[in-house]
Each structure stands twice: as C-alpha cells, then as structure tokens.
Amino acid sequence: KRCYESLKIRLLNRVCKAYWVPGQAGADYLKTFGEVDKASIFSGAYTMESSAICADYSAAKLLRQENRRKLGFSGEDRVLMMAANFLDNRQHVLLVRAFLSVQKKHQNLKLVLLGEGANLEEVKAIIQDNQADQNVLCKGGVGFAELARYYSLSDVYVHSGAEPYSTAVMYAALVGMPLLLSQSVGATMDVLEDGS
Question: Which residues of the chain have pLDDT under 50?
Fold first, then answer.
C-alpha cells in the first residue's frame, strides 16, 4: 500500500505545483513521502459558516431541555453524540460496545448517533441484543439545518474512528463542546492539545 501511495505522489508531483490538505495531520502525512517539496504543502481547514453555526447552536440551546425530553432524556442524563456515516473506519461498533460497558456503571449516560451507512444495521443489532434502545439512539442522516438541535442537546462530542478530517468535529469544537476523540481523526491535531 505504501508503494502505491508513493507512486501516486510521484505522479501528482508531475502535474501539481502545490498541495492543499485539510489540517496539520494531512500535511504531516504528505511530508512522510519525502518526495514532496515541503514548501508546496499548504494546510487549512474546510470553510465553515462559523457565525451561522454558532447562531443556530445558540438558538437550539434555548430548546435544549425540550429537545432532550422529546428523545426521552432527563435533565440528569449525560448525552454523548457522534455524527458520522456508519463505515468500518468510523468504529461505531467499537464505540457502542465500549459505551454499553461504561453505561452499566453510569446509568445516566446516553449516546446519540447520527449518520447512515453499511454498518448501521450491525450497530442497531448490538443495541437491540443489549436491550439498549433507550440508551443508544440511531437517528439516521439528518440535514445540516437539524445538526444544531442534536449538538445543543448533547454534553460531549465523541469520535471513535479514523478519517482524514472531520467537519463534525470542527463543528463541535466551534460551538465549544467538550471533545472525546480518537487520535486517528485528522482534525484532532487542529482542535486539541496534548493534555487538554
């Protein structure tokens, strides 16, 4: 696989004078090939409508308790949330199993999962087998306009898997949510510092 990646980089170098990559992790990865001029790598973040996101989140926060009640959550519940398609690399199965283990000792924990994908049915089966449908909710794919409602009713944003860069993580960081992230999420390097 590494040889294939190196070949792709050599081919790209013939036609590209510069590279834009999302975040520091993307830049660091590209540098590992040694065949790319470091001065030609520019890292950044995906553009997000920060002011609109924060305004939507603030408005949804006013309805936090009502939205939590609609999902069957109490004011004492602590809600974790992840918004990502159900793909192998996102590790939803691992997350749900770990959550169910912890939730046995901490009954007030809840988990909301947003997204669609190949592993959704497997995750739903785990939830059903553990009779955890009141504690783990799979809400499917939601439109961007609905995201503020789910972020605002949640207490912590989690991302258990791997992906080059996550706009869902950036959204959570932008609105000031506590983050619990795998080191395999590229955005982690841009939103967290070691020990914080």
Answer: none
Helix H, strand E, coil C: the string for 98-128 is HHHHHHCCCCCEEEEEECCCCCHHHHHHHHH
Measured N-to-C along each axis, helices 120-129 and 92-103 cross at an angle, to the nearest 10 degrees, of: 20
* 68, 83 contact by CB (below 8 A): no
Q: Are 19 and 43 in contact (CB under 8 A)?
A: no
Instruction: Give residue-wise pLDDT tens across range 128-156.
Output: 999 999 999 999 999 888 999 999 999 99
Question: Taking a C-beta distance cutoff of 8 angstroms, is the pair 148, 63 a contact?
Answer: no
What is the per-residue pLDDT for 26?
A: 76
pLDDT at 45: 66
- The pLDDT tens digits of the residues spanning 70-88 come to 999 999 999 999 999 999 9
- 21's CB contacts (< 8 A; 6+ apart) are 27, 29, 30, 41, 42, 43, 44
